[in-house]
Amino acid sequence: MNKIGILTCLHSNAVCARVGCLSAFQNRTDFFQDYPEDTYLTAFMTCNGCKNANPTEPAEDKGILEKIDKLVNEKINIIHVGVCRLSDGKHECPRMTQICEMLEERGIKVIRGTHKE
Ligand code: SF4
Prior knowledge:
The chain is an alpha/beta fold. The chain is built from 3 helices and 4 strands. The protein is about 25% helix and about 20% strand.
């Protein structure tokens, strides 16, 4: 059984209902096309917000650290990162990059992409 999760931009919550990510997973399309039936989407997490709203870097952020601990404890071994990681539509937000590195350091594979970009 595969257990996977999705990471998105906190700021995108204002306009995004995660419909594209969830549909792609349910229909096994785009970045989820190779997953077998017995794959469970068991986590959805966001970053800790932009620096101007939250000066604490992800590596020091208790909430982010707790979320990553939870992923590890739940044996979630792959996290997909939404297109909202591209803060200007082209370049990855540095906070997203930091969180991806933190995930990888804990043995979680990071795949950049959910639905078509
Ligand atoms: S830090 Fe980056 S990914 Fe997080 S809310 Fe801000 S723009 Fe979005």
